[in-house]
From TrEMBL:
PANTHER family: BETA-PINACENE SYNTHASE-RELATED, TERPENE SYNTHASE. SUPFAM superfamilies: Terpenoid synthases (SSF48576). It comes from the Eukaryota. Pfam families: Terpene_syn_C_2. Its EC number is 4.2.3.-. It is an enzyme of class 4 (lyase). GO terms for biological process: isoprenoid biosynthetic process. Its cofactor is Mg(2+). Gene3D superfamilies: Farnesyl Diphosphate Synthase. This is Terpene synthase.
Length: 316
C-alpha cells in the first residue's frame, strides 16, 4: 500500500501580478532591532517562540511591530473562549488608545506589546493615518472576539479585518485627507487588496488549518462544503476568483480621481504599497515556515502540497 501522503495542486495566483518581489534595503537592520525588542517580552513558550522566529516578517519597523502584535494576539486568543478573548482584546485596545500610560503590574503581556507598537508608530505616523488605523483596529477587535464566539459555537464567520490593518500601516507616513481615504474608489481598491491576501492566505494555509481544526475560518473548507467540491477543484475555483479580483484592482486604478499633484503622489504611494503587500504576503507563505515547514521552496517550484490527514475530508 502506498504510504505517501496525498498532495494537492496549489495554483500560482501571482504569476501575472505586476508588482515583483523586492526586499526593503533596511530590512536586515530593522528586523534585528524589532526581533530583539520582541524577545525581551518573553511572551511566548519555547515552542511558540520557535514558530515566531521562523516567521520572517519583511517590513519596516511599524509593519514588523504590527506583525509581531498580530502573532502574539493570535497566540493568546486562538484557543480561548469569548470571555477571555474579549478581556485580552480590551487590554490591547486600551493600550493603543493610551500609548503613554504604563501598563499595570501583572497585566497580560499583550498590553505592553501593543503599547510599545503604537508608541513607536505615532512618532512617524500622521494624525489622519493614526485615526484611520484606530478606526480599523476596532473592526479587527470585533472580528477576533466574534471568531472566539464562532469557535465556541462551531460557526464560521469571515474574519479577515486584520488585513485592512496591514493596508492601514502603508498609510502611516502619509497625510491622506479623509476625502481620499474614504473615497468609494479608494475603499474599493483597498477591499480588493484585502480579498487577494485573504484568498492567497487561505489557499496556502488550508492543509495546516484543516488538521488543526480551524476549517470554519478557511475559505477553501467553507466553499468546498457550499459547492460540494473536492479540495483540488476548490483550489482551481479559488485561483479563478483571485484572477477576477486582480483584474478588478488593476482596472480600478484607472478610475482613481485626481486630487492635485501633491496628494496624487501620496495616493500612488499608498496604492503601490498596498499592491506590494499582496506580493509580500504571498511570498511570506512560502519563505517562512509557518505553513509548509522547510518545504516552502520545493512547494513553490512543484506546486504540490502534502495534504495532511484532516477531519471528514472529501476524497481526492
Amino acid at each position: 500500500m502506498d504510504a505517501r501522503p496525498k498532495t494537492i495542486y496549489l495554483p500560482d495566483t501571482m504569476v501575472n501580478w505586476p508588482w515583483p518581489r523586492t526586499i526593503n534595503p533596511h530590512y536586515e537592520d530593522v528586523k534585528a532591532e524589532v526581533d530583539a525588542s520582541f524577545h525581551d517580552f518573553k511572551a511566548l513558550s519555547p515552542k511558540s517562540q520557535e514558530a515566531f522566529d521562523k516567521c520572517d516578517f519583511e517590513h519596516l519597523q511599524s509593519s514588523c511591530d504590527l506583525m509581531n502584535l498580530f502573532f502574539i494576539v493570535e497566540e493568546y486568543t486562538d484557543m480561548e473562549n469569548e470571555a477571555v478573548t474579549k478581556e485580552r482584546m480590551d487590554i490591547v485596545l486600551d493600550a493603543l488608545h493610551n500609548p503613554h500610560k504604563i501598563r499595570p503590574e501583572g497585566e497580560c503581556i499583550l498590553g505592553k506589546i501593543a503599547r510599545q507598537f503604537w508608541a513607536r508608530a505615532i512618532q512617524s505616523a500622521s494624525l489622519p493615518s493614526q485615526r484611520h488605523f484606530l478606526e480599523t483596529f476596532d473592526e479587527y477587535f470585533n472580528s477576533v472576539v466574534v471568531e472566539a464566539l464562532d469557535r465556541e459555537q462551531g460557526r464560521r464567520h469571515s474574519l479577515d479585518d486584520y488585513i485592512k490593518l496591514q493596508c492601514a500601516t502603508v498609510e502611516m507616513g502619509m497625510d491622506l485627507p479623509d476625502e481620499v481615504f474614504y473615497h468609494p474608489i479608494i475603499m474599493d481598491l483597498t477591499n480588493y487588496i484585502t480579498e487577494l491576501i485573504f484568498i492567497d492566505n487561505d489557499m496556502t494555509s488550508y492543509s495546516k488549518e484543516q488538521v488543526a481544526g480551524n476549517e470554519f475560518h478557511n475559505l477553501i473548507s467553507i466553499v468546498m462544503l457550499e459547492l460540494d467540491l473536492d479540495s483540488g477543484s476548490m483550489m482551481a475555483w479559488a485561483a479563478h476568483y483571485h484572477t477576477e479580483v486582480q483584474k478588478q484592482f488593476i482596472d480600478g486604478l484607472a478610475k482613481v480621481p485626481s486630487w492635485g499633484p501633491s496628494v496624487n503622489v501620496l495616493v500612488k504611494e499608498y496604492l503601490n504599497g498596498a499592491a506590494n503587500w499582496v506580493r509580500a504576503s504571498h511570498s511570506w507563505g512560502f519563505e517562512s515556515q509557518r505553513y509548509f515547514g522547510t518545504m516552502g521552496p520545493e512547494i513553490r517550484q512543484t506546486r504540490l502540497v502534502p495534504l495532511l490527514p484532516g477531519p471528514d475530508r472529501k476524497a481526492m
